[in-house]
Amino acid sequence: MSKVKVAAFSISLDGYAAGPDQSREEPLGKRGEELHTWFFPTRMFQGMYGKGTGTEGIDNDFAEKSFENLGAWIMGRSMFGPVRGPWPDDAWKGWWGENPPYHVPVFVLTHHARESITMEGGTVFHFVTDGIDSALERARKAANGKDIRIGGGTSTVRQYLQAGHIDEMHLAVSPVFLGSGENLFAGLDLPKLGFTDTQTVYGEGATHVILKKSKTV
Prior knowledge:
By secondary structure, this protein is an alpha/beta fold.
C-alpha cells in the first residue's frame, strides 16, 4: 500500500531541520550543512554525484532505503531554490544540475505559477499553486501505487504533519545544537497526530529514529 513518508530528514538535537538565513550560497541556512554530515560520506550520496565509492554501514543503509519504492516527491519552494516572489525567468532549475537525484515526478509548492520542467533521468518538476492537498492528490496519481516522499523544507513537512497526511517519518538526528533556524516540532503534538510507534538505530554519524502512526489510529 502506498505511504506518504518523510525519509532521511536531518534534524539537530534541539529539533532544528535548517539553519537561519537560507541563501544561494548557504541553501541549508547558516550551519545547516552540519545536520547532514552523516549523509555526505555515504556511498549513496557519493554515487549520486559520481564522486567515488563512499562509506558503507548503517548510515548508508538508511540513505539507500530512503529512495526505495518512490513514485513521487513533494517539496516546498525553499527546497527547490532561493528565488522568492514571482519567477523572474526560467533560468533556475534547482540546486542539482541537469540530472537531479529524484528520477520521478516532483511537485513543488509555490504561490507563483510556472511551466513544468523536464530534466534528465526522469525528473519532472511540476509547480503547484493550489495547496498541499492538491499536490498530494497529483502526487498519488503520478506515484501509481508507490510511496510519496515529502522532501522538505521544514515548513512543508510541518504542513503535511498538521494535516494528518504523513504515515511514517525517518529522522536522522545529528549530534549538534543549532539554537535557531527552522524547528520541526515546535507546537506539534506528535502522539495526538497518531505517532506512537518508534524505533531507534544508532548509525556512524547520526541516530536514526523511525516514527510510525499506530495501526489503531
